[in-house]
Amino acid sequence: MKKTGHSFYVFSSLKVALLVVIASSFYLVAAEDAGFPGQRSGEDLQAAGFESLFVGKNLAEWDFKPWHQGHFVVKDGLIDYDGLSEAKKWSENNLWTKKSYADFTFYAEWRLPRKPVMKGHPVVLYNGDFLMEQDHPKKRVTRAHLDAGDSGFYFRGDTRCQANIWSQALGSGEVNGYRTDKSMPAVTRRGCIPLKNADRPLGQWNAFEVTIKGNRMTVVLNGEKVIDAVPLPDLPARGPIALQHHHDPVQFRNLWVKELP
């Protein structure tokens, strides 16, 4: 069968387009694997005195319960949580470490893998309150924003002491339990709001480095300080660390902790 010049042109164009798609995909994968600001290698963390809580093998350091089975799953070198743990009490769905910690620095990499959808997000004011509708003072004002879910880490066995993982414009690292508690001092509530949004695009890996010393908490996200030594009144002196359950899928990898003197 004789090919026309037009057919050859179409075939060539499709071939070029396919090569562009393949090259673009390779670039995105390479960029994702090439490291990002704030990411630290296991060798670096180990040399700095960190101890592993998870490096891709098992959950030996975690208080794994029957209702976690099939939900917090180790695969491909990470912890894949589907958000569907089945404990009767909400708080029991969180996955806590077996060991308790006093002063420490915690390093973790995480991402929200779900495809983002548009969702109404509340607006947080400078004082830590939510912006409420003028005609309905008990109803929050919301703004449409891409959302891939919500999770976080809890510290010292206290769910108020959280480094929040979420999709909101405010940015991750927010200390939600203290920020929303109106009995807390103004300096605490304001200090629990991230200084900037340092999150990478939804679906990409991020790195937290959280330091708690005494009752002060600092959060560095992707190399950017987002919470600066905020005082947290009545924080327990020691307690375990948790991966938060929030009914949303989330993935974790490279979890390390260093106890401080």
Helix and strand succession? HHEEEEEEEEEHHEEEEE
Helical run tally: 4
Largest sheet: 8 strands, antiparallel
Number of domains: 2
Oligomer class: single chain
CATH-level-4 superfamily name of the largest domain: Exo-inulinase, domain 1
How large, in whole angstroms, is the Cα Rg? Answer: 22 Å
Unreliable stretches (pLDDT < 50, length at least 5) are 1-31
**The top level CATH class name of the largest domain:** Mainly Beta
CATH architecture of the largest domain: Sandwich
What fold name goes in the CATH topology slot of the largest domain? Answer: Jelly Rolls
Can you describe this structure?
The model is unreliable at 1-31 (pLDDT under 50). The strands form 3 sheets. Strands 1, 2, 3, 5, 10, 11, 12 and 14 form an 8-stranded antiparallel sheet that branches. The protein contains 4 helices and 14 strands. It folds into 2 domains: 1-34; 37-259, Jelly Rolls (Sandwich), CATH 2.60.120. 33% of the residues are buried. It is globular and about 55 Å long. It has helices spanning 5-33, 42-47, 176-179, 186-191, and strands spanning 51-54, 72-75, 78-81, 95-96, 104-111, 117-122, 142-147, 150-155, 158-166, 206-213, 216-221, 224-231, 242-243, 250-259. It is an alpha+beta fold and 261 residues long.
